[in-house]
Amino acid sequence: MHSRPPQSTVRMLAALSIPAAVVGIGCALLLRAVDQMAALLEQGLWSALPDALGVDPTSGWWIFATLTGIGIAVGLVLWLAPGHGGEDSATVSLMAPPSPLRVLPSLAVVTVLGLAGGVSLGPESPIIAINTALFVAAIKKLQPSIPTGLVVIVVAAGTIGALFGTPVAAALVFTGVVGSLKIEGELWDRLFLPLVAAATGSVTMSLLAHPSFTLPLPTYTTVAAWDLLSASIIACVAATIGILAAAALPRLHRAFRLLRNPLIYAGIGGALLGVLGAIGGPVTLFKGLQQMDELLDERNSLTVGTLILIVAVKVVALVISAAAGFRGGRVFPAVFIGMAIGVVANAIVPSVPLAVAIAGGVLGMVLAVSRDGWISLFVAVAVTGSVSALPLLCIAVLPTWLLVSRAPVMVVHAHQQEKL
Known about the structure:
Layout: H1 7-53, H2 60-80, H3 104-117, H4 124-142, H5 148-164, H6 167-177, H7 187-209, H8 225-257, H9 262-280, H10 289-298, H11 304-323, H12 331-348, H13 354-370, H14 373-384, H15 390-404, H16 414-418
Helix pairs in contact: 1-3, 1-4, 1-5, 1-7, 2-3, 2-9, 3-4, 4-5, 5-6, 5-7, 6-7, 6-14, 8-11, 8-13, 8-15, 9-11, 10-12, 11-12, 12-13, 13-14, 13-15, 14-15
């Protein structure tokens, strides 16, 4: 039997529920604002402008020119704008210490440029940084007694809830994290405020944009022993690819920084992404959520070699995007890569159910990039929409975790930056 939580804890959680709910709503609104600005610019760059010029926006030269221009624009902001785009996303975790407010305008600009321009990064890292800085500053003025660490966790939970459209993702991510909070009571006392923020953030975003990760896949209802082996092998292969990408990131990051000026290394990074985009095609651009549907629709008309090329291009594009100074998170493109690996596996061995193949690929790649088993399981199930695959994934994640647990993390640490 568990003891009842102290009355003081109940009063504190009840009193802080309204601020936590406000934070969750605010996180969703700010995320939506960034998404909308990026969507408007994307429409201009990839539709309105090429239509006005009478050119094909899917042509290799337009992809190259656009991404090169985005790289130069991002480099100019990083070089000259106040705040210089904030912390390099490649060097910080999702829950980094709050940034100074003065860096937020330039961080928002480079984030929007990257999202709109086709850079292979997601919005999660910079939008959490923006939300954290704003709400920490606001709460310090309004309620200085609330610990900054608690605010950071609540803001991150609200943002993750908004990003995924459900509080479940945030609950899974923060089950381990909240253990460090100095709050009396059971685990659910510690999860209470992050869940309030995640729930209100997800509901707000669902009302505004109806986000969904689920792909229209054939229904998977009958679990077979062969599927367990298949999911485990595919997850380990995907994780190995993610580990190689994680090992390459600090080396490429150092190589770009030898160029010193962000205008030069971001510009070159944009040009390299343009070359990759011209090779892999439009499906290898952007954060990857919309492109997953496109690849699923086109998969039967693509050869295995072409599918493997798409995976390779996206992996290299992710590493270059992170290394060349672009601001953004690595989880969303990792989801696309994992999904594409699953499509390759199904194309090579058609007897492997497509849902199992994609779930295994997403599980392995996201686990290697995020180093979080809960979020990897959640995303794999969310993408396939198959609860029946969950038992397979709960077993497949075990050998995959052994593979990634001592492998390089996809973050550039300070000591790695210093080694030239």
